[in-house]
Amino acid sequence: MDVDKRTTTICTVVAIDHTALYYTVCSFCERTLPETNTAPPSVTYCDHCNFTRNTSTVPHRGGGGSTSKRLFRVLMSVATETKVFEVVMFDRAARVLFGCSAQDFVDFAKLHPFSGETASKILEGEMLKVTLSKPKNGNAQHQRVVSVVPLKSGFHPAMDTLRELHGVRPDC
Ligand SMILES: [Zn+2]
């Protein structure tokens, strides 16, 4: 049996797949929902927990109404001293680099097209200390980023730079 083996390494971001930075989950049971092409979270039905917008027997969460949410799932190529390889980075680690939640990012990208592309460019070349885990799950192709620490002193998450580029102040 494969053990969840962890390694820590220093690497540089070579490229980020900006076409698929996030995925959609049911905000109730957090299972993956099929991606729709419509921009707002418009999925109203989850096969797993049967959570629908109209359900009154299911406890409400927060403002109610929204039945799906976005989480980061970022594929990126990184280079170590000896090789270049692809890793997948999920929500918790990706937030460190992006500086916001996936939902905030999607909302921002709606107003500012090409934000995904720009964010990827911003992060390319960053030196990172990453902890990688080889999933026990045999069908996962990529090593997973468990944690990430940017090495540059004064590192700014991509979102900070994006907001600066677009003249958006976080406190407005
Ligand atoms: Zn669900």
TrEMBL record:
<protein>
    <recommendedName>
        <fullName>Replication factor A C-terminal domain-containing protein</fullName>
    </recommendedName>
</protein>
<dbReference type="InterPro" id="IPR012340">
    <property type="entry name" value="NA-bd_OB-fold"/>
</dbReference>
